[in-house]
Fold:
Amino acid sequence: MRTIYNRILCAPLAMSVLFLAVACASPQEPPVSRAQFNAAGEVQIPEGWREWVFVGAPLTPNALNDGKAPFPEFHNVYVEPSAFAHFQRTGEWANGTQIAKELVLIRENDNAEDGSTAEVSGVGYFQGAFQGLELTIKDTERYAAEPGGWAYFSFGHQAPPYNQAAKAFPTEACNACHEASAATDFVFTQFYPVIRALQK
Ligand code: HEC
Structure:
């Protein structure tokens, strides 16, 4: 009688307690989706980055930079959605985070000398053609030698089609400026209103 009772009642009870203990002891963050790499160790161009979360669009036009802005285009910045969700929950960039920056030329339409155009909403700068794609990835294992584990890539500073794969830049070329001046773990969140809104 005792054994039957044990089997019927105690075994499921013990299993539920065990399950609860395991579930409660390790509140796991879901993993973020990872970049793909080719056999040469280069990162593949991400799929569908224009459907990632759009966080901001800084603009450094030539007209305000003596005609010599390194990137005279709009800089449209997108965060891969699972990395965005993780940041939303924790305020931190997860290992595996991918952030894309697509360059977009100022729209051509009988532009004034300062590059502006007059459109129905007023005189100013409007987005024209795509002109380049960059990516940063945080991966403290693959890029253990990079400060913060952040590596930086370009798929070309040109009109599409972009290059299909890219190798990481040397630390001094990109990472160093991000480390020195970016607000949140190498990312320039100070220029992304969508991220700032999460940090309040
Ligand atoms: C002199 C400083 C500086 C250097 C060098 C630099 N960046 Fe950035 N980067 C910025 C700033 C400022 C932003 C914020 C957005 C903007 O204004 O473009 C940014 C933003 C980015 C972003 C969007 C995510 C983020 O971290 O905010 C990517 C991707 C990026 N840079 C890639 C690169 C790559 C690739 C290189 C090297 C070829 C590079 N950067 C070198 C200053 C720099």
User: Anything to note?
Assistant: The mean pLDDT is 91. The radius of gyration is 23 Å. Residues 58, 75, 77, 99, 101, 134-136, 152-154, 169, 173-174, 177-178, 182, 187-188, 191 surround heme C (CB under 6 Å). Residues 77 and 101 are 4 Å apart (CA to CA).
